[in-house]
Design a protein that fits this description.
4 copies of one chain form a homotetramer. Chain A is α/β, with parallel strands linked by helices and 332 residues long. The first copy, chain A, has helices spanning 11-21, 36-46, 53-58, 74-83, 98-111, 125-135, 157-163, 166-169, 171-183, 203-207, 278-281, 283-299, 307-326, and strands spanning 2-7, 26-32, 49-50, 62-67, 87-91, 115-118, 142-150, 190-198, 213-220, 225-231, 239-246, 249-253, 261-265, 268-271, 330-331. Chain A binds chain D through residues 139-141, 143-144, 146, 148, 150, 192, 194, 196, 198-201, 213-215, 217, 219, 223-227, 229, 231, 234-236, 239, 243, 245-250, 327-329, 331, and chain D through 139-140, 143-144, 146, 148, 150, 192, 194, 196, 198-201, 213-215, 217, 219, 223-227, 229, 231, 234-236, 239, 243, 245-250, 327-329, 331.
Chain lengths: 332, 332, 332, 332
């Protein structure tokens, strides 16, 4: 039985805590959060105790921690957890600074602990099936990837100011999907990236120094092409699709819908909008992701999403942001 | 905290036991099964104890039982549970004999306990959404229902011999859906039923006195029409769809799929087959169904699927079987 | 160059006249219609002459006629055309009376002319592709057919009074599809038919002695099952679908849509309604049907839809009407 | 009655000739082609005469010409036709040289004749419906356009050498769609374009100085974003889709399919591949396009696709080609 602590009892912390508490062989021992109320509610619901971070790191019985706190605490907590000899699950991103993120890689390596970054999309059943078929060669060699990644609405402007901007905040997931889908089969990597952005929905986003709409193009060393389009405000909801073209076919990953009801009436033939937002859309992915973390700890197999993947995605996000600012592509 | 026992640790018993054990406010205290091994494995996995049925009924702390044992034990267990003052969740059907099923209704009434029959399809998110839209009048008044209900493969012939046949075994669910969708809004009921069946897949099914393919038509008192088609062997898997036509439109309930991957290649454009079988297709329905049982016990609200619904569906199944045998319709 | 006359310049006559006039090797010489205006307009548009029926039959240069006049004139015109030695294309049905329809078969045979009945659905690209795959065994042996056949709105009650009723008027097409899809591979035929009907949309339809909603079930000699559901008023338009289950899979024929635009907005994800009505839905079928007529005349190959097919469908329609009236199935 | 000549009796010339010959009020008088055989065959089939280009221009009865000859003859023929006072329908592109294309604009203007460029996609029923809904504001203000434009296979390398390359040859259509969909509502235009290309399918394409795979991004003056992805070889066929995001929703234009048959079997649920290639996919568009040409000549209304549109698309194609070569974006 593995004893675990969850650091951070906000929205994503609650998801991970509930999922890991339901795993056989895993005990959620501690919940820690600056908000005593958040920590107590979550701990009580799942039969855990409230603890400080220092207590967590000091408790020898704790084998692993799940870091679900705000982004700007990640690198510090990863480093401290590594030094305390705890295995680490950390929500994306590692850190908005590639330098600090790289320091986390080093700290984890030095401590000999395992560290997984939460790119949950790699665990989504739809995306995972596409990846598996690609790996089995069902559509030949990958050539082109088109990602549509759109949020239903922008977060508060205050959040945007600290988020690192649309490329680091939203597109970090898509940049990881790019590496996973288009490159991971044979070690290909991005060679050239070009991005551009606009503010089309709310001038306050421009005032916060961010974009609400962006388009990214990546060419890899092998000449594969990836296009990503995104907006912070899609009127029809949360849109999470990608299509990968291979030499022998195409794999298309569609949205998930709450139900399979289709209504035919005088207006047309109408199905559901996509699942509301990421908590619904990726509910299965979050469950499978945290299960993967503990399975790998058990088996000694490597994680599908390492801290090095986190750093690599961050570098791409930085390059996209730079390209959008300068209007010029970035070469790697 | 409600203490509960599960009677029957087979395939469906394990589903219900796992789901109810995860509900807040519900404790799975006992598991009972003629197979000591089945009972022990399930009890251990969920932290319950193994008990005999007599022990369960004798334990005053037990408020409710979930009857998940073979069909031919249902009426006896319902009666005994009612007499012991336990609330009852019982898998469909109540009993293959309408007489005995009606006796269960009486026993439950006499004992003043609550009894819910497990027609899980009423709790399926897709079917439930269609029902809700119908109730809100989004397609006007219902006029016609077409149900496609197909299994991926026939059960063993030994099972078929005791199952009561395709109308009582498979179509009981669809006959309940008919009542729920086409009749429940205004108390309409079947007035005329005609059924016919064939054996097209395996002569052993004919030898067992059953059909593998059947077609049912029902006309209600208000003149609404329902057609049900079924087979025990659909080469493409488990097919669970219905369409209800209303005066202002149509609601179509499609299959659920494991993933939203669509593959485009030289053969065409191909999506997933439906979810494999009922345990996968109705996973959410089973969770919501058992939660509904305990919510109603808590709130005192009536169940959506009562023992009277079980009897009504059984009567329709009997009439369909009789019609298929005689080649003549049955009037109610 | 084949000289041809079109008898009847109404809606369907105009379709056939335009289509045949565009065929290489075919000359539309005459148009005949009781309405001098209709005849003149059509003749002028297509460069033909107006003629009486007697003139048409007397003109030795006319090799074939297309009978597009009202149903109650069909058998007389078929007989006269046959006697005049003209090859015959006749819109469905042959005649509302099976006796008179059979007399047409005899007259055609006696005269040694070719006679094709216009069941255009057999020429629809979608339905035709399904038939071809079935014939190639792509889904194994056929077992079950489900037909959804719905009109967008009822014709005037005056029309209904003379139409022979919903089974002869609307379902004649579907009954032909049943024979074509479920029986034609190996000479199977209907053995048992049961039908029921209701009036749910307009009491005037009941007053005219007809139904607006009907459900038909057919069992063939080989035990195959067919269900047909129909309404004269589908709020969402013209619905023309069927699904055929085989031992190795299912072929589903969906509606055709005017465009492939899908709109995603706050209401959901919405595609087009089906093509408006039969002239749009079967535009290609009408073109291919009349081309088939002339190709067969040229090559001497048999027609896909003979006058015997017309009689066979009429017998099924009669049986369905009788069953709906009596409430009892009809055996063949 | 308008007398017309078709210049060029190749694949596209035959399409236009057949379509215009079927229009009421239009007479195809001449066909001209360097291949006497091609000219004679087409002329005979449609009841026209073979003529030299000089004869065509000299015949005062000819009001309009359709230029369907190779690209490198377009500007010369447009200029000569204009000087001869003929109205002009010319297949895209105007000319691979923007300078020569602009000279055509001037020649047409000086002669006071009408000149339409054949961007047939604007006449496609699906694309046209999307444009109409956008114009009616059904999805609010346009923000983003994603175009997937893929050929089933590359043309011969010899063709590629003279084609101007993938941006001028294939993407010229998509660049016109970009202007039509994202810009035409309010006079917006491209402000910044970035393109990149690869050779992934056949090294001979690289040897010919072209790409087989390309990705283009455009930002307009108003900040709207467009991404286009293309390949010369999609294993699943001809892929012609676009999606336009607006402030209130999304319009998605899907492929057209030959039939609506869907096959369910052990492999999955499979629909048709898209229509085979442009002659099939855009058959309706070609008909509607040439009808539009003559309707505008008749009514005096402006064409939907002018020679100025042809020049504008050519400028975008040149900029995309330059960007792909240099690796740097182009500003307008």
């Amino acid at each position: 039985m593995k004893n675990v602590a969850v650091l951070g009892a906000g929205r994503i912390g609650r998801i991970h805590a509930s999922n890991l508490a339901a795993l056989p062989g895993v005990t959620l021992k501690y919940v820690s959060d600056p908000s005593a109320q958040f920590a107590a509610e979550l701990a009580q619901r799942l039969g855990a105790q409230v603890a400080t971070i220092a207590d967590v790191f000091a408790d020898k019985s704790i084998e692993a921690v799940a870091i679900c706190s705000p982004t700007d605490t990640h690198s510090d907590l990863i480093t401290r957890a590594a030094q305390a000899g705890k295995h680490i699950f950390c929500e994306k991103p590692v850190d908005l600074s590639v330098t600090r993120a790289q320091a986390c890689v080093d700290a984890v390596k030095a401590a000999g602990v395992a560290c997984m970054i939460g790119f949950q999309r790699r665990f989504d059943p739809t995306f995972g099936e596409a990846h598996a078929r690609l790996a089995r060669g069902e559509i030949g060699t990958p050539e082109m990837l088109v990602i549509t990644s759109r949020d239903p609405g922008a977060p508060p402007v205050e959040y945007l100011k600290a988020s690192g901007g649309i490329f680091r905040d939203m597109l970090i997931h898509d940049l990881d999907v790019f590496r996973w889908i288009l490159c991971s089969g044979d070690g290909d990597e991005a060679a050239w990236i070009s991005a551009t952005g606009s503010v089309l929905t709310d001038p306050a986003i421009a005032a916060a120094g961010d974009f609400d709409s962006a388009a990214v193009t990546i060419r890899t060393q092998k000449g594969r092409l990836c296009q990503i389009n995104t907006t912070r405000r899609a009127a029809y909801g949360y849109d999470q699709r990608f299509e990968v073209l291979g030499s022998a076919g195409l794999l298309q990953c569609g949205n998930h819908r709450p139900t399979e009801v289709v209504q035919w009436d005088a207006m047309g033939i109408r199905g559901d909008k996509p699942e509301n937002f990421f908590l619904q859309r990726y509910a299965a992915a979050y469950r499978l992701e945290i299960a993967h973390f503990f399975e790998c700890l058990q088996s000694g197999q490597p994680f599908k999403t390492t801290v090095a993947d986190g750093v690599a995605a961050q570098k791409l996000a930085d390059a996209a942001a730079e390209s959008a600012r300068s209007g010029q592509p970035v070469q790697f």
